[in-house]
Design brief:
Number of helices: 15
Order of helices and strands: HHEHEHEHHHEEHHEHHEHEHHH
Largest sheet: 6 strands, mixed
Helix content: 40-55%
Number of strands: 8
Shape: globular
Mean pLDDT: 84
Structural class: alpha/beta
Number of domains: 1
Strand order of the largest sheet: 2-1-3-6-7-8
Radius of gyration: 24 Å
């Protein structure tokens, strides 16, 4: 009996080991989180749908393997809108990697820059800025990201991150042994067989088999969500992070371009309704003052600051029940078509009908021009203005209260 029990136990151990080996081998081959760096095989594991919700983890590993000369940094607006593989990028600035992540703040951009620069040189850094990340919101907290911090090559003060090995081991276990990895590996295989999947290539968040632009219902629901995100006062820590980015790039000889992300006119109207317009303008002035301290004889040593926010032909695109937007996925996220124009503009390859390089000499006239655009928009697009007031009335207060603060 004892011999039979021992044989039975050994059979189960062998079976468990075999099953475990198959699971680990399957997860390694699928590499759903790009932790391992397994070769991408068309029709098998090429597309990585697990990027949704795991972009910070995936990019932390993937960017070091790519050895980029140019980094694109920022939030999901940059992640969705700018194309690291766009042909307009000059050959001497390639390869380009998109390090934009959902919820990306100036602090996250700074830490990612440290991470990459400790591994290889970066010639150009392009950072998209979002006004709301400079407010005192919970997203601005630095202490709330221990998992993100532990995976980077260096600590915030620039020293070697001695705890990174432990994080790599945890990530490897998560990517090969866990049930989540098995589920995401299965989803990866299925997505590649059906070729209907989101993906990440050179850091780009790639959307496959999806209708272009955003629907009316989606846009309106996102507007109500966005209205609840704007609260608090200006956060001085965020501007300190911008200063840290400037100092880091100057110390490494990295050319730096800042740009203010474009948003739909609905978002601009919402900020005005919530009383943030003076803060919004003051934020732009502060950015100009900060970047203007650094200039040089050659073009690449000057820190450029571009503003793509305003009431232009892209941001004033009509929003209606029977219309699918062309330029925006939602009021905050622009399409790659708009992103391509941004890239060409900051590289000096397009006409000056979208985007303004702002400096101490032109900032006041630039802000006045946007206020005039706003006045004209409200005069000729009264139905759109009314629609936004009524929508945000759900968040802000009664329609009468909203109307009272409209101008």
């Amino acid at each position: 009996m004892e011999k039979q029990s021992r044989r039975f136990l050994m059979s189960w151990v062998l079976a468990g080991t075999l099953i475990g080996s198959v699971v680990v081998g399957f997860n390694v081959a699928m590499d759903p989180y790009l932790v391992i760096g397994a070769p991408r095989i068309v029709g098998f594991n090429e597309h990585k749908p697990a990027v949704h919700g795991h972009d910070r983890l995936m990019k932390t590993y993937d960017v070091l393997r790519e050895h980029p000369k140019t980094l694109i940094l920022g939030s999901s607006r940059v992640e969705l809108g700018l194309d690291a593989q766009y042909p307009a990028w000059p050959e001497h600035d390639r390869p380009v990697y998109n390090l934009g992540v959902a919820g990306g703040t100036p602090y996250i951009a700074y830490r990612y820059l440290q991470h990459v620069m400790s591994h290889n040189g970066v010639e150009l850094a392009v950072l998209g800025l979002d006004f709301e990340t400079f407010l005192t919101t919970k997203e601005a907290s630095r202490a709330a990201m221990p998992d993100f911090e532990s995976g980077l090559m260096v600590t915030r003060d620039g020293n070697i991150n001695t705890g990174r090995t432990r994080k790599q081991i945890r990530d490897l276990v998560q990517a090969t042994i866990s049930l989540d990895a098995l589920s995401d590996s299965t989803a990866t295989l299925t997505a590649n067989l059906t070729r209907g999947s989101i993906d990440m290539v050179a850091g780009n968040f790639v959307v496959l088999d999806r209708a272009h632009g955003g629907s009316y219902a989606f846009i309106m629901s996102q507007e109500l969500y966005n209205a609840r995100r704007y609260y608090g006062e200006a956060n001085p820590m965020a501007m300190e992070d911008v200063q840290a980015i400037i100092n880091l790039c100057k110390s490494h000889g990295t050319h730096l371009i800042f740009f203010i992300n474009p948003v739909h006119a609905d978002t601009l109207e919402m900020m005005s309704l919530l009383g943030y317009w003076p803060v919004y303008e003051a934020w732009k002035r502060e950015l100009v003052t900060l970047t203007a301290k650094y200039s040089g004889a050659d073009g690449r040593s000057r820190i450029a600051l571009w503003d793509f926010s305003g009431y232009d032909s892209y941001s004033t695109e009509a929003v209606s029940v029977n219309h699918t937007s062309q330029w925006y996925w939602d009021p905050s996220h622009y399409s790659k078509i708009v992103g391509d124009v941004i890239v060409r503009r900051i590289l000096g390859m397009s006409t000056p009908d979208f985007g303004v390089s702002i400096t101490p000499e032109n900032i006041e006239s630039h802000l006045a021009s946007i206020r005039e655009q706003q006045r004209i928009y409200r005069e000729y697009r009264q139905a759109d203005e009314r629609r936004v007031r009524e929508a945000y009335g759900v968040v802000i207060g009664t329609p009468a209260q909203v109307a009272a603060t409209a101008h």
